[in-house]
Specification:
about 140 residues; mainly alpha
């Protein structure tokens, strides 16, 4: 998983996670797993091997945003500004992940280091043509 309960707790006020989950650890775990699964889907589309290890900080941040939104959905989304902020952060995370999936953004992997671009298998191709044929007179 790309984030943990402690990461969620660090992103919101004290007691919010317990309040949203009703003290049910299963709800928290499901929200985090759903977040990680969603991220993996985009990463796989982008040609990455999942799960990423170690987890880059920005992927953890996006995982937290998605997991908090998932947990808020279980609680019930309202028109409160804080819920609108959660929805906006999730939308931003999804836009980033969509960019990863199409190759607009790349994530350095542990094997590549932080200064290199990720390779994307299946995204590069080379066309090789043969000799041109003179087909005059065959028609």
């Amino acid at each position: 998983m790309y984030c943990e309960r402690t990461d969620l707790e660090a992103a919101v006020r004290d007691g919010v996670i317990d309040s949203w989950s009703g003290g049910d650890e299963t709800k928290i775990t499901k929200a985090i797993r759903a977040s990680s699964s969603e991220i993996d889907g985009y990463l796989l589309s982008g040609g990455y091997t999942v799960p990423l290890s170690p987890v880059p900080d920005h992927i953890k941040d996006h995982a937290v945003s998605i997991a908090l939104y998932n947990l808020a959905v279980v609680r019930g989304i309202t028109d409160a500004p804080s819920d609108k902020e959660l929805a906006a952060k999730k939308a931003a995370a999804i836009r980033f992940l969509e960019g990863v999936a199409i190759g607009k953004f790349q994530i350095p992997t542990a094997a590549e280091g932080t200064d290199q671009k990720s390779t994307r298998p299946g995204k590069k191709f080379h066309i090789k043509t043969g000799r041109k044929m003179d087909v005059r007179g065959f028609c």
